[in-house]
């Protein structure tokens, strides 16, 4: 068994080069992941924020992500930013370095601060957000209930990882509650856990040898993995790559504008109108995401600040229309008023350099000794979400299986969660499932583990997810075992091989009708009088952790009756017209939760 204590939940913080985010899940259902959505603009939300930290002139933390970006841009607009510290993409500054605690980061204006201070600020920001989310939901978990996981690039040296540990400690995370994992390893574990219908290849990701294509915002990083007979994953070709991510598309867009209005005009615009520049970049990002889902769009329209055209006119005495006619885009009506209009072919050309570099680099790796004949490519990262990139890789390597998970940009953080749960919850045996139903076989009464030997770990006795042997003894945290077996969750104790979990029902409803609002309200009032955890019933009724979490946030932690009522309505709604949405099923689950069923006589008239 693991030496680490089982925590109530695991939280993963993904500090990326360009964007960062976090996710968490509870130990009783590790695959039900909660991810914070961030406001990235009017009517827009994102799973991650820009990786940037803003400190005031005194060197104190002010903000992170979108808030930091907005504030610093506003300060720049009025020329009040000189004494503020703004660190963007600071993760990059640590790659391939031997760092010590005195290592300093330099911001965009040349101001310096200790690197450990900036990293601690970023980690503390996400740590505090997790704790605040739990507090709002009224769950009652504290810092000591959480195990933290930080995924890192494969290029990071041991000294950088040690530096990150110390930064996390400075942020308030105890070293005993922290695990550092490699990002491609985490992504691979996540994809292995996914059912086939959530993978683009239409089958399980279970290959012994594969290449991880981590196509992020700035970088494209390629690593070749091979599973060993003992289940561990070995890196058979070290990480390599280049700056061929989605921001390369931004650079191509910028270069297109420079080709029209000339470099000095664009530089003047950037210096004098930082707010307009930021808005234009975000407008481009929105359109990139639209295009990522449908690269056959007839038109892409991007709003361009009017001041860019007026600056060009001031400098040259010519209009933007004149500029287009003198540019490589002569004869194309691409810039009209405050809009740049792309047809599908022109917008696709912005991706050409990135895609050719990606496919060429993959081809070069595949020619290396010991790497030839890779059967599978695993695509993760933000740029892997783009249909044009996916199709290019598939076309370039028709004999290889290309695996793309749902939400490839979240594969690392979700995989990090799974690894975090593995470390705290380990079983030395592989198990199969056995289910016991009630007499008419209409529902499952219990789910428990079965093994050839009458041996059960403590985790199995709790109905937890069980994993096969997970040995980290010889390679430290970089080694991992991926051959785990998922088990169905059940909140009742399992005990031994012959244990039977019988329902406590004393009443069987004689109807399969759906309960009315009045009945659910009356039942909620009755349940509110009991000393019971309402979410236990919610889980028995099939609600996910995410639904429970949202109900708690919406109803408020102090309004238990309201939580019961909302929960019951959600259950009824998602099971409408099914046996699982009937009065009979509800009463059965009340009995399963150990609730005295006499109250149902009054509520349902049975």
Automatic annotation (TrEMBL):
InterPro entries in the cross-refs: ATPase_NBD, DEATH-like_dom_sf, Death_dom
Chain ranges of the Death domain: 533-594
Protein name in the entry: Death domain-containing protein
Annotated Pfam families: Death
PANTHER family attached to this UniProt entry: ALPHA KINASE/ELONGATION FACTOR 2 KINASE, HEAT SHOCK 70 KDA PROTEIN 12A
CDD domains: ASKHA_NBD_HSP70_HSPA12 (cd10229), Death (cd01670)
């Amino acid at each position: 068994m693991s030496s680490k204590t089982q925590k109530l939940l695991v939280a993963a913080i993904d500090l990326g080069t360009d964007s960062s985010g976090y996710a968490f899940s509870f130990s009783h259902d590790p695959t039900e992941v909660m991810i914070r959505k961030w406001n990235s603009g009017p009517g827009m939300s994102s799973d991650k924020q820009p990786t940037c930290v803003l400190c005031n002139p005194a060197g104190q933390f002010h903000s992170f992500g979108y808030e930091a970006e907005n504030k610093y841009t506003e300060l720049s607009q009025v020329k009040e930013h000189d004494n503020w510290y703004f660190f963007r993409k600071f993760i990059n500054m640590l790659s391939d370095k031997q760092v010590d605690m005195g290592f300093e980061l330099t911001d965009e204006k040349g101001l310096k601060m200790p690197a450990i201070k900036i990293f601690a600020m970023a980690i503390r920001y996400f740590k505090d957000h997790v704790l605040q989310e739990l507090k709002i939901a009224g769950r009652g978990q504290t810092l000591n209930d959480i195990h933290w996981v930080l995924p890192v690039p494969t290029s990071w040296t041991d000294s950088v990882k040690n530096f990150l540990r110390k930064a996390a400690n400075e942020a308030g995370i105890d070293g005993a509650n922290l695990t550092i994992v490699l990002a491609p390893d985490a992504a691979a574990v996540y994809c292995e856990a996914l059912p086939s219908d959530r993978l683009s290849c239409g089958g399980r990701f279970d290959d012994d040898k594969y290449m991880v294509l981590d196509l992020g915002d700035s970088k494209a990083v390629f690593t070749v993995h091979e599973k060993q007979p003992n289940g561990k994953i070995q890196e058979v070709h070290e990480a390599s790559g280049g700056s061929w991510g989605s921001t390369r598309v931004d650079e191509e867009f910028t270069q297109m504008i420079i080709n029209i209005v000339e470099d000095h005009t664009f530089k003047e615009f950037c210096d004098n109108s930082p707010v307009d520049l930021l808005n234009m970049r975000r407008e481009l990002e929105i359109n990139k995401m639209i295009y990522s889902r449908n690269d056959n769009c007839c038109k892409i329209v991007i709003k361009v600040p009017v001041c860019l055209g007026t600056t060009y006119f001031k400098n040259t005495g010519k209009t933007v229309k004149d500029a287009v006619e003198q540019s490589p885009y002569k004869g194309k009506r691409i810039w009209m008023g405050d809009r740049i209009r792309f047809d599908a072919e022109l917008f696709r050309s912005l991706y050409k350099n990135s895609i050719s570099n990606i496919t060429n680099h993959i081809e070069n790796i595949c020619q290396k000794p010991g790497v030839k004949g890779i059967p599978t490519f695993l695509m993760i990262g933000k740029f892997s979400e783009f249909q044009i990139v996916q199709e290019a890789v598939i076309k370039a390597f028709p004999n290889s299986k290309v695996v793309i998970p749902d939400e490839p940009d979240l594969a690392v953080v979700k995989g990090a969660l799974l690894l975090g749960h593995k470390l705290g919850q380990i079983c030395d045996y592989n198990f199969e499932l056995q289910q016991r139903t009630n007499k008419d076989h209409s529902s499952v009464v219990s789910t428990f583990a079965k093994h050839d030997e009458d041996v059960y770990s403590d985790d199995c006795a709790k109905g937890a997810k069980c994993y096969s042997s997970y040995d980290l003894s010889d390679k430290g945290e970089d080694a991992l075992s991926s051959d785990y077996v998922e088990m169905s969750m059940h909140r009742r104790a399992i005990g031994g091989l012959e244990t039977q979990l019988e329902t406590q029902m004393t009443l069987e409803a004689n109807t399969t009708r759906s309960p009315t609002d009045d009945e659910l309200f009356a039942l909620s009032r009755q349940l509110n009088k009991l000393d019971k955890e309402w979410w236990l019933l919610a889980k028995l009724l099939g609600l996910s952790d995410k639904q429970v979490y949202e109900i708690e946030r919406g109803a408020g932690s102090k309004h238990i009756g309201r939580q019961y009522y909302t929960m019951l309505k959600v259950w009824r709604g998602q099971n409408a017209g099914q046996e699982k949405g009937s009065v009979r099923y509800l009463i059965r689950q009340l009995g399963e939760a150990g609730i005295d069923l006499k109250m149902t006589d009054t509520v349902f008239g049975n």
